[in-house]
What does this fold into?
Amino acid sequence: MDFMNDTNEFLLEHGSIAAEKTLADRCLFVLNDEQWQEFQAILDRPVQEKPRLKKLLTSPGVFDRGGTGKMPIPQESSNYF
It folds into this structure.
């Protein structure tokens, strides 16, 4: 498995865990009639193209730029101190 897949899997797994922890105590969502109708309208509307979101999700990320996916190891140097 490559670094990109490892990173994606990590983010998905930990994002899901964080969402579960945040919403664990919320098993009931109460909406009034107006809020329910608005929610239904949002779910029923056609999918909208989001070019900027598509570009963001398909562009290389900071971990994708030129390399092996491994952090460079600094060489010993007397310039540190």
